[in-house]
Amino acid sequence: MKRILLATLFVAAVANAAPLKTDLAHSSVGAVFKQMNVPVEAKFKRFDAQIDYDAAHPDVSKARVDIDTGSLDLGDPEYNKEVAKKEWFNSAQYPKASFVSTAIKPVTAGKLNIAGKLTIKGRTADVSFPVTVKPEGGKQVFEGQLPIRRLAFNIGEGEWKDTSMVADEVVIKFRIAAGQ
């Protein structure tokens, strides 16, 4: 009897993790890195976030974010073309970078720790990062930062492996607004 009750509670909890519709006008995904020790902030123009979130049971929630690697906007059309090339994102062969959650754990009120698989340029790594979640205008807003090392994903081949020009450390920043 106890197993049936637990199974029923689990199914009910999973059923409450509802898919949210991403409000792209109020969402953003970007990257911050240093070039010649000067911070550079860039935004991805195209991405898609699929979030199934239950505030009462965040541990049954799921998230997936797909980013169009050719949409990175550095503020200059020539630079934008450059980062889509083979040495950087190789957007022709790897048009998407993706994150798929494997675990979402509540930390404190309004704070989650998310673990998952990050795939960029055909390389996948396990990652974990904190996220704040808050209601705003009838939506849930998920904000966070994920530090990565670009060379672990082969971003910056050949002469661009030199980290004195472009630092290895990159911080992916995101703000996803989503609601029913």
Automatic annotation (TrEMBL):
Superkingdom in the source lineage: Bacteria
Q: Per the UniProt record, which residue ranges are transmembrane?
A: none
Q: Say if the entry is tagged with keyword Signal.
A: yes
Q: Which Gene3D superfamilies match?
A: Lipid/polyisoprenoid-binding, YceI-like
Sequence ranges assigned to domain Lipid/polyisoprenoid-binding YceI-like in this UniProt record = 19-179
InterPro entries noted in UniProt? Lipid/polyisoprenoid-bd_YceI, TTHA0802/YceI-like_sf
Keywords in alphabetical order, please. Signal
> What Pfam families does the record point to?
YceI
The signal sequence is 1-17
Against PANTHER family, the record matches this protein to: PROTEIN YCEI
The protein here is known as Polyisoprenoid-binding protein
